[in-house]
Records
---
Amino acid sequence: MVKIKIDNQELEVAEGTTVLQAALDNKIDVPYFCWHSKLSIAGNCRMCLVNLKGSPKPVISCRERVREGLEVDTKSPEVKKMQQGVLEFILLNHPLDCPICDQSGECPLQDNYFKFSKFPSRIEDQKIHKPKAVPLGPLVTLDDERCIVCTRCVRFCDEVTGTHELCVTERGGHSTLRTYPGAELKNPYSLCTVDICPVGALTSTDFRFKKRVWFLKSADSICTGCATGCNIKMDWDDQIVYRYRPRENEAVNQCWMCDEGRLTYKFINDKNRVLEPLVKKHGEFQRVGWDEALAFTRKRIPREAHEVSASSCVGVVSAQASCEENTALVKFLQQVSKEPVFLTTKKEIANPSHDDFLIDADKNPNSAFLKVLGKEISYARHFPKEAVVFVLDNLTEAQKKELVDARPKLVVWLASNLWEPSHWADVVLPKPTFAEQDGTFINRQNREQKTNKAFAPRGLARPVGEVLREIRLQT
Ligand code: SF4
Ligand code: SF4
Ligand code: FES
């Protein structure tokens, strides 16, 4: 550790720390654009200039390392004037059209402009015009006039994904961000470049112009796209999820997430959401109220479950569902049946994506919990004949076929989305997605992670535990 002073404040910081990091760690505001904690130091934006006592000229704080006795000035009028000058240079050709920029409201350039300068542009000539709305790949769109050439995105593709798609060509005000000839920005983490772009140059093609960010609310949650369980911020408004952004957790996903997982939010808004209970009548699902759906279910469960053979009640627990939902189903069946049978289900897809970074081939967020549960209950491999079956979330295609062949007496499907084909179920009871209720998932590292309820369940969906409790109380 070394002792330093920043703006006359005495601090003790680890040797080797940069001055910028030391300032930020101690909540001292120093503006910066090109520096990023997970990327190499480029030192090209010059926004982080500070004065050091005894130094003949200002230094960039993102590169300067602390040393014993160092005295740093980040706030004097002289330093503010330097920072203001740098900002004016950065904005020389920037369109400054925040009202029509998708980054507005979450843009460090906009924030710094308001914080440091608020000067009108002194440029008398035409600003340099550059390509606008250029698709760099399937998911990322570039507005090159807004680019401040910080090279964060270039360094991300060089240092994190190692895919090297991006480069800066030309010089000075004509500098242009491009993909290399023949290359496209389509690595599995391409949308992380949008997260780290400090201005509105890189935007998500999926999200851009869908919603002004100041209308969005945010919930801390977990991506359910695979067993990794990347930590996310779920941004939503009016019961619609608009995007996921990575939330920093050094032990799980650092500050990144994959594109595939990031776009899995769409099932929450999907048209196939089950919003009311459904009961099959004359071979067709009909919308009914909760009272009718529960009465229809109860009519078969109480008498049969207590009377008949041990294998009459079956519960299918799911690696897609939360620990709470799975536990509720297990407890319910243990209460209504002498010897319930349990099976497991999980999402299975052909040729799942995977890598040695974040993307796991297991596309289920809670496989680890089914292993934990398997220590308390044993899992059967096949459906018993003529049973009353409760299915959580969904079945694999093979399981659906086997279930139909087993000629069940009743199939109750606790689902958030009506995945097709659904001919195998008799009753569908709508459950909330993980965006609409608190939950726990155990990831591939056996870390227990929480999802937080962002908004009230859509339609008439009700939590699994509540619905099963109501069925049990009436049996
Ligand atoms: S596009 Fe964004 S991240 Fe990339 S160099 Fe330009 S400003 Fe930086
Ligand atoms: S790696 Fe897995 S958990 Fe992380 S964002 Fe991708 S799909 Fe989601
Ligand atoms: S943040 Fe230091 S030079 Fe850009």
---
Amino acid sequence: MSYLRNAWTVAAWANELEPGKLLARTLLDEPLVFYRDAAGQPQALLDRCPHRFAPLSMGRLCDGGASVQCPYHGLRFDGSGACVHNPHGDGRVPAAARVRSYPVVERWSAIWIWMGDLACADAALIPDFSFNDPAHWAVGTGSMVVDAPYELEVDNILDLSHIEFMHPLFASEAVRRAEVTCEQDGDTVWCKRFMADDREVPDFIRQVFQVNEGPVDRWLHVRWNAPASMALWAGGVAGGRPTEQGIVSQQAHCFTPESRERTRYFYSIAFPRAMGPMAEELAGQSVAALRGPFENEDKPIVEAVGRRMGGAALFDLKPVLLPGDAAAVRARRLLHAMIEKERA
Ligand code: FES
Ligand SMILES: [Fe+2]
């Protein structure tokens, strides 16, 4: 299956893009170089000089970010991909000296990239992750590389019935027994899991939701947007209390394929700045606490699943379907349809 190109996807967390530095990253099988220009705005270019194809990411930024200098023979390119300096001959810039540039937008603590048709690159299409707006939220961010197709990561987040079996820190039978609904709103898919009256609440969950004793009503709402940008609201309140009184943790789980077999996973957790200095501390601590299960529990299983599937398409292997699969199957069908439409 090919990639969905006409969609915004996360290329990096904003804090990965340090002023004065070049960041090399392969996405959708294309080598890219990212940097901040003289105004601090993110830029993305194909990481391949049009002269003798040296990676621009091995070069350097010039004039405070106004251009990138190729490490090999010194051609310089600006953020639009135009060659702005040729140190050779009479200095005339050959017409073909141009590198592909990609629309990028810094929004909600992330750098979003559009790798499709330029005419359709409307920033209004970036899915809403306003809970990661650094002006109002302290955002803890993390990322990792997973050696598996990105669709398997989408399946993993849309079907959280695996929590009981995979994650001792959050495990409780209630998650599996939850009332689960799958909803579709346009091109957005939701999986909503409500765990009423959970009585075997793990300590970690009690701490997060600040319910020291008695049953807890909990919920996990996951939203999917193509190709693999997901938001997760994990809420909890003392059993029987209105859900509006609960505490909700807001997380991003965004996946961008590097290749068909390798995925870059961006995750975050946000706390309102209204909490004061504690918010920053909590964001840092929580993202560190999540890293363990994501790296040591989800990643090895998802990678092993990918190996067992051996590159076959999911439905060709005729998977057994369980109730928790509804949202993941819906999202996958929608994604396939979008890719087919784009190719047509
Ligand atoms: S390869 Fe870039 S200037 Fe020669
Ligand atoms: Fe998990």
